[in-house]
Write a structure and sequence with these properties.
This protein is of the alpha/beta class. Helix content is about 45%, strand content about 25%.
């Protein structure tokens, strides 16, 4: 898994590529730890366009990030899921926990409105 971070006016965007499994979930958590400590990361959009596979470890990492953003009054949005990833996301009930969008600009626009 590779993670590239960009900063938009509304949020940090984490562009994730590759399989999100046991091994890569730990890498994701380390990067989020660094961003939470070093930057004013409060609102986050996860760009999953290049993630072909999402395991339960990835779901747990998403949930953990959301828990860490909550005391900061932060928001987590998910964008651009591939069909296989969307199936896991919806099948696990995560679509009820996190707003998801067809693309990053839509997610950023929603954060701008704080919906």
């Amino acid at each position: 898994m590779d993670i590239t971070v960009t900063r938009a006016p509304q949020a940090h965007v984490l562009h994730i590529s590759g399989r999100w499994d046991f091994f890569s979930a730990a890498n994701f958590e380390e990067i989020c730890d660094e961003l939470l400590r070093a930057e004013d990361m409060r609102d986050v959009v996860l760009d999953l366009a290049a993630v072909p596979y999402l395991s339960s470890f990835g779901l747990r990492a998403i949930l953990e990030l959301a828990k860490r953003l909550e005391p900061l009054s932060g928001n987590l949005r998910v964008a651009d899921m591939q069909p296989a990833v969307a199936k896991v996301f919806i099948g696990s009930g995560f679509h009820r926990l996190f707003r998801h969008f067809p693309d990053v600009p839509s997610a950023l626009a929603a954060l701008g409105r704080k919906t």
